[in-house]
Fold these 2 entries.
Entry 1:
Amino acid sequence: MSDPERHPFLHGLSKHRGAPPTVVVIFGASGDLTARKLVPAIYNLALDGLLPADFYLIGFGRKPIPDAEFQQVAADAVREFSRRELQDDVWSRLAPRTLYVSGGYDEAAAFQQLAERIEGIEKEIGQEMQTLFYISTPPSVFAPISENLGASGLARRHVGRPQQSKVIIEKPFGKDLASAQALNRTIASVFAESQVFRIDHYLGKETVQDLLVQRFANAIFEPLWNRNFVDHVQITVAEEVGVGTRAGYYEGSGALRDMIQNHTMQLLALTAMEPPVSLDAESIRNEKVKLLQAIQPLRLEAAAGDVARAQYAEGLLGGNPVAGYMQEDGVDAKSSTETFAALRLNINNWRWHGVPFYLRSGKRMARRVTEIAIRFKRAPGNIFAESERIQLAANTLAFQIQPDEGMSLILNAKIPGLETRTQPVKMNFKYATTFGSNTPEAYERLVLDAMIGDSTLFIRGDETERSWQLVTPILEHWRTQGRTGLDTYSAGSWGPKSADALLDANGHSWREP
Ligand code: BG6
């Protein structure tokens, strides 16, 4: 490795920042994500002085509204959703550079208008601008948008230079393997892979990136990180929220597509992949793909299979009664959409052969928590007890991704006193205590990375296809089964019995995070 800047063992995760002059164009400008995440992210980047000096934001949407109204909507979004308050001096610089273009996503003329607006900006400031297209629309219009970006020439602006156009694509990236492949083909007919940034916002979370640092900047873990010392791994992505007002989307999705295929698989890949030779995008993504390729096909049969699915029934959350999924607005009376999914995976490589990886994700669970728990093998025997049958607790290293970001290690310790008795104790590291709690939002990091052209924290085309290849047979199986085999769990619980059974079979049980 001749370039020390890119070598993780020398320089950690630090990167040089500095994007060329940029126009960010958001397709789906009136959508929820734009208000809740994208505009606040851009504002916070401005507040930190991380936007290029020449920066413009163009909202693109069907509704015809003047620039001034979009500026107002954007300011309101910052006031409501930004992690830091709107400061007038920062906003007064950004507002006049916040513009709006209206038109249909399949209307060639609207894309011409967009191109003219961007050229107008370039003339005004006398510089070539990079254009970063952010596709944050329902997936049904991903293809027409990308085709029109191609046909209008917008996709090929300033090719081969730092200012070359880039595109960020929001999830859901397809709904199964075939649709993800089709979408990749459409995109590839317009953009080179280096211009494409498929987003998984979990990769923008601080603690997910910290996982790389913990694994590859601390020498003590690597010798233990394998089948000789690890008993099993549990990855939990639990949410308290229910389907809320999103039944229209969620009914066609379910937990496997919405959370497992993308976010949870990414956590798994980063936890289990081999050390990358450097921190650059291809090195990391190659390792993730290799890991995903080593996952064995899952057994789908009802008894002794590797999968469980369930819907939440009514229950209590924080002491308050909440409705079951079937009673939620917009849910079909015969819905077989799973709000919880759990998988038992085997990774067939030298490092992990024989170590089960358990993944689960659900809505309306007891608590919002995302964690990765590495359960180590127990100490052999127990010289501290009268009988060897009294087992010592196993050591567990847990990464809390959210909300209480940190890391903990369970160890056995002596209970003070004249007898020698042991008790598991927990060593805790909390992000908030050490570093304060005002960490950047995932979207800030990801928008900035896309602007500077760093795709390390984005999903490569083959990566998304491999992940769909793993889950598509499960989706097809569940479709043929309808509601047969669909378990339930009380809202406010840790999930259904069928998910416990996945672990019972190996003498394991889910930990309560
Ligand atoms: C989204 C899913 O990708 O992630 C939502 O579509 C889910 O259903 C959300 O609620 C969870 O994200 P976070 O960052 O709140 O954990």
Entry 2:
Amino acid sequence: MSRQEEIKKLIDMREEARLGGGEKRIEKQHAQGKYTARERIEMILDEGSFEEFDMFVKHRSHDFGLEKQQYLGDGVVTGHGTVDGRIVYIFAQDFTVFGGSLSETYAKKICKLMDQAMLVGAPVIGVNDSGGARIQEGVMSLAGYAEIFQRNILASGVIPQISAIFGPCAGGAVYSPALTDVVIMSDKTSYMFVTGPKVTKTVTGENITTEDLGGATVHATKSGIAHFRADDEDEGIMLIRKTLEYLPQNNLEDPVQTECKDPIDRLDDVLNDIIPENPNQPYDVKDIIYTIVDDGEFLEFHRHYAKNIVVGFVKFDGRPVGVVANQPNFLAGVLDIESSRKAARFVRLCDSFNVPILTLVDVPGFLPGSAQEYGGIIAHGAKLLFAYGEATVPKVTITLRKSYGGAHDVMSSKQLRGDINYAWPSAEIAVMGASGAVEILEGKNIRKIENEDEQLKYITEKEAEYKNKFANPYVAAQHGFIDDVIEPRNSRFRIIRAFKTLENKKLINPPKKHSNIPL
Ligand code: HXC
């Protein structure tokens, strides 16, 4: 073969690999409203930055006539490129080749790129669109999955791992995304479940559709498995890139500060009146978040799940910060099983990757009731407590209104190593609200009063007394649990200065194998 012919062969082989399972299957993929693996990679990465690995890999199976069906690349496209100029490793499952199913060699390709990502300290993006284990390869395929899981586990907390689910993801295959930091699902075209509708029907008799069992809406609203439900793949791709903007390359680096044109000393007069006079009246804590952060930009995680707590990434003076805020607009901002788990996971994500945490507190306590107790709110609430107490990143807290009981301690209190704890004048930091306290402390006296009007008058007086004494920020401030009571409109500047002050914070937990967080 002449040199010219050698080069032509290379070009032809590349061309063949790029076609995956062939034109027909690509057309089918498009007809379903899905991009191909290579199109996805091109869109996720900076233009022209993709370098592919292992394009010439083929499977080694000889069963079920598979040896006659060979596709260059074997159903997964792997390599590296850049997002906003920073290196990332990426794999995209190619549904056009054996339904994107995972073979021994396919798993090896993914493991290779994960190993290299760990060596250089760069994020891994995984795009899932697969029929699961390649049935013809049997146990080799199961072993391949386990190899990937093991790498997901060791990479956790070292490099950011982001999973996009843009098609099927079923059986044990779901555990790789589940082990990663962020899961993004495309609406209507993706699903995730351990057991599909057919087996569900056989085993339990339950009749349920794929969408209702494991669609993006289910995981974004009911299970909390998906951090984001994207309207389509384009939005999902945008979310991958956006998420990476707030994270460093690895746990030894800080997130990147970008230029900020939004004035850091901007006063937000609207905040002085944002808390309603009536303590039982809700308001939207997101209005506060949008007001104080750079350019009103907030990348909210889990927007549709456990809405009584709000979490996500923002920037202050161009520096990424994770926000955790109780949401009075939903269930009065109470802490329950789901919101505790949601926030705990987010706090740990921030702490793993050196993203400082801002906590906005307006919490009436934990949700009472047998459903919560039987469901293990003790352990789930402890997760959030644990996550905050363990976190060593800079922690700034502002108590906006209520901060009652155990929930007060949990929400980044001073004693959980909150670095700077501010309160607005509207803060009520106490064991419980005035009406609950009066009911308990004055119950006997109240019942002795027979006249209803007299009774009401007595209750009102006692509540006012309690409020005066406890339902304010000054008792906590007297003890130094609150560092300063600030005017709401100054919040943006105070937060920025607080994080700037804490920039070089050094705090190291005692050496240990690992903690034993109440899972
Ligand atoms: C080999 C597979 C495959 C698989 C699909 N294909 N899944 N080949 N192993 N697991 C092939 C099909 O034969 C077909 O080949 C092509 O991919 C496209 O599949 P279709 O069925 O035509 O596509 P569609 O109608 O869109 O249905 C997609 C699907 C379905 C719902 C994913 O293919 C399906 O149910 N696949 C099997 C899923 C499954 O049971 N997987 C094993 C789960 S157990 P041609 O040549 O016709 O294009 C598992 C365990 C993991 O994954 C354990 C980890 C620890």
